[in-house]
From TrEMBL:
GO terms for molecular function: deaminase activity. Belongs to the RutC family. GO terms for cellular component: cytosol. It comes from Pollutimonas thiosulfatoxidans. InterPro entries: RidA (IPR006056), RutC-like_sf (IPR035959), YjgF/YER057c/UK114 (IPR006175). CDD domains: YjgF_YER057c_UK114_family. This is Reactive intermediate/imine deaminase.
Amino acid sequence: MSKQIIHTDAAPAAVGPYSQAVAAGAGKTVYLSGQIGLEPATGELVSENFEGQVRQSFANMQAVIEAAGGTLESIVKLTLFLTDLSKFASANAIMADIIPQPFPARSTIGVSSLPKGAQFEVEAIIVI
């Protein structure tokens, strides 16, 4: 799968580990459901710690991507949901550690609550 990163100086530059837009070549598009920081074996949150939940959410997302036949490089769009937008910088730093460059397009949304009391959720669109 080839990705073309779209950038223009006529719009604000990305303020984190993401691209303004991504065009993906021909392939199969897969829309992933949101993942929260649940331990796969127990179905319980990995911890009350925000960073732990973010890392587990990304690990769960990666497992689904791999089950679909993709890799983290297949991601063209991410959506992050945070119950506390003051933790945006922490989520950015973790994402930058996990997601390879060039970064996918991304939106971040502040929400009042998430299932099971989670503090973070991530969903993705991949092309493989």
